[in-house]
Amino acid sequence: MTTSPAPGPGALRIGEVYRYPRPALADTPIVDGLPNFFFVTRTPDLPRVQLESGIDAPAAVTGPDGHRRPTILIRSSPSKAGTAETPWQDYFDPDHGHIRYFGDGKVGHHNAAVPKGNRLLIEQALHWLSDAPSGREAAAPLLFFLGTSHDGRRKGQVRFQGFGVLERAEVVAQVDAESGVGYSNYRYDFSVLRLDDESIGLPWEWIARRRNPALTTAEADKAAPASWRRWKELGPSGLGLLRRRLSSLREVSKASQVPETPHHRVILSDVHEYYARGVKHHLFEGLAEVVTDHILRREGLNYSPGWITRRSGDEGIDFVGRFDVGSGLAMVSVVLLGQAKCTKPGNPVSGRDVARVVARLRRGWIGAFVTTGYFSRGVQREIIDDEYPILLIGGAQFARAVSEMLDQRGMKSAFELCSALEATYIQRLVARRPHEILLD
To answer: Where along the chain do its domains lie?
Structure first.
C-alpha cells in the first residue's frame, strides 16, 4: 500500500482568525470551526512555533552561511491593555503598514534589555537597521498577531496581522497602573510589508525553509514574498515603497483612466490640440470648470460654479466653486478649489501640481484636479494615505463628460465646445478670495 506524503506547510492570511488550542493539535486542520494555528504552521520533524509570550521565536539555526533566527512572532492582547499583566497599549494598523508595540519590560526589571523578548528584538536591531545588504541578510522576519475572541466568549484565538521589520526602537519610561511604580521598557515601531497576493497570504514554507540548517539564507528566502527580498536590497530607505497599504485597493490603474473608445480618445486629442496652440493653454481652465460642474451635477450634487481666477494672482488655483448641503438653517456650504492641467493624453500629472492645491485648502474645504492625462499610483497613494479631500478627474472621466456635453448642446466636436467657451472666458475671470463665494 502506498502512503500519501504529509501535507506541506500552509499560509497565513492577514485578517484571518486562527484557533490556538491548548493542548496543541498539530494534525487537525480545523478546530472549533476555525483554521488551526498549529496545523498551518507545522514544520515536519521540528518543534512547533508558539505564541505563549508577547515575543516568541523558534530556535536559531546555523546554516552554510552562518547563524540566523528563522522568525520572531509578536503577539498583542488588546483585552489586557492597562492591566498588571500588560500595562501598556499597543497600536496595530496593518492596513497602513504600521504597528507600535511595547516590549516585555515590567516592574522589577531595572534594565529594559533584560527581558527575553526585548533581548530577541534588540539583538536583531543591527540587522534590521543596517545600511548594508550584507548586514540585513541575517535579519529575521517579524510575524504579527492580535489575540481575539471570535464569538465574544471563547479565548485561545489569534488574528494574523502581517509580517515585517523593525523601523525604530527607543527606551521609554512607563508606570505600572496598579502599583504606580515606574520602570523602563522598549517601544518599537514596526513596518508591515506588503504580500505578493493577499488572497494567498504568507507562505509558511518560507519560515520552514529558514528553519532548515541545510539551506543558506538566500536559498531559504527564495520562498519569501517579493517585498522581503526587495527590502534586503534597499534597506530602511525602501520602506516607503514596500510598506503594506490597503489604500492600494482604492487606487485606479492607468488603463482605467485612459479612454477606451476611439470617440473619447479623439475628444482628448482635440482638446489638447486646441489648447496647445499659441498662448491658449490657460484657457483650458474654462473647460475644466465646466467639466467639473457637469460631473458633480450628474452625480446629483448641489454644486454652484463660482469664477475663474485671474492668472496674475491665482496662487495655484484656477477656479472656485461651492457645495451646498441641506437647506435653510440646516444647510452648510463648502468651498471647492479647482486646478486644471491640460496634459498630453497618456501622460501622468506631477505630484507637485497636486501639492499646490493641497497647500491652499483650509479646514472644511475640498479640492478638484482636472486633467486630460492620468494620476499615477504614487500621486493617488499620497492623496489616499494622507486623506486629502481632493476630487481627481482624469482623462477617461473628462472625455466622457465632454462627450455628454456635446450631445446636450448639439455640437459635433470638442473644437466647437472649446471655441464657445473661449468666447465667454473673459467674463468668468474674477479677482476674489476663495472664501468670498460663501457670501454669494
So the answer is: 11-244, 250-439
Query: What is this structure's pTM?
Result: 0.62
Task: With a cut of 60, say whether residue 259 has pLDDT above it.
Answer: yes
Give the H or E element holding residue 172: strand 157-175
Q: For the chain, how many residues are written? A: 440
Distance between CA 75 and CA 18 in Å, rounded? 13
Cell 489569534 belongs to residue: 158
Question: Which top CATH class is 11-244?
Answer: mainly beta
CATH annotation of 250-439: 3.40.1350.10
What span, in angstroms and rounded, lies between the C-alpha atoms of 354 and 361? 11
CA angle 150, 155, 158 (to 5 degrees): 65
Mean pLDDT of 337-352: 92
**Residue 6: which pLDDT band, with cuts at 50, 70 and 90?**
very low
Chain Cα centroid distance, residue 88: 26
Looking at every residue in the chain, the average pLDDT score rounds to: 87
| Residue 125 CB neighbour total at 10 angstroms | 15
